[in-house]
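tool=predict chain=A
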Amino acid sequence: MKPGRIIIIFTTGLLAGWGLYGLAGPVRPVIAEPSTKADRTPIAKPTAKEDPRWSAFREKSRKADWGQMNAMLKEVVPGDRMAALEALAARPGLKGIGTVAIHLMEKITREWAAEDLDGAWAAAQKCQNEELREVMMGAILEQLAKTDPERALEMESTQVFSNNGIKSNLITMLQESKLRSGAADYIESIKRFPAVRTSSGSDEEFAGDFDFKLAADAVTALQKANDGNGPSSFPVNFMSEWAKKDPHAAFGWWAANPSLPFGDVNKVLEGFENHSPGSSTAWLVEKFQDPAMPREKLIAEWVDIDIDDLMPKVNTIAAALPDAQVADAFLHDVFVAKSEGVVEASAFALTGMSSPEARLAALRAMAAKYKSVDENVEMGEVTDEQLQAWGITREQAEKAIAK
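tool=predict ok
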């Protein structure tokens, strides 16, 4: 995950609605009373009395690139961390100091928290600069969440931030950690918090005995009950890891259910290939001929990859189908799904068809699909040479897409 995972995820009053996440027990670090708006002092310009060393450090950070950040980090010894942070923040607003400096502040704070959590937390709470205080707290909580997400959530729940909202993605980190504990723990964690619009997570590790079907059913039920909302994020490798373990079960679930967030059929095929290298193409050829398959869904998701990656796969499968009629039907569906209303976008599928009549039928089907939802249909930059190779005239093509 990229540096600075600290993001604003939820809005006013959410913590109160969760009852402080249902957590019990005292917070282990010393918790200072949150300051009021009257107490809060905005980040200010450096004063004339500032230590020249830190003035120079701040100016260096303004010109630093990513490659210089670690060298600057080494200049800050443990006893100087707060002075370095205050120097970096001593400008009119954090937005003025640059991305490198922001990440340098986060790194300094995370190192501090890794060595002395209570000391770093106490220093953050005492910090009078509101923006710096929140950067420090976010970095500390993120560092702690790597080893103890429950405690990080507990600590976060005690804080009053400037926007009265949550400043980190600790809930996501907690839910991701439960994947390594098992499906039951993961399900408990996603039910524990309000359903939200699910964002793409990262590749995650799963417990050896993780019950993918149980988790998939739970996420689907959560989305159904909450108008499509679900966990705060979802691992992008869920379906591929399931298919790596049991490809037929993963595909069967995919075929019978709404797609999981970021879990289309290409993830199933990725896992299938890892499970049985070299066999996914033949398996897919079989599925494209199975009348029980949700063909439209299968093709729509399968073609949703880069065109340069898709073309050789389409050609391979078309060549493996039993006859020209079956291959034309396959290419017809690929053309319509990939075109998005522009002939040029999936012209390669027309090229592979066996006759001008099959191509004109595909053009008419594309026009019918996209015009039914009031979307434009156009030729794009299809050349006369292409049309001639297809055995149709421009007039015939334009008439077909006009219907």
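Residues 14-164 form one domain. The chain has a mean pLDDT of 83.
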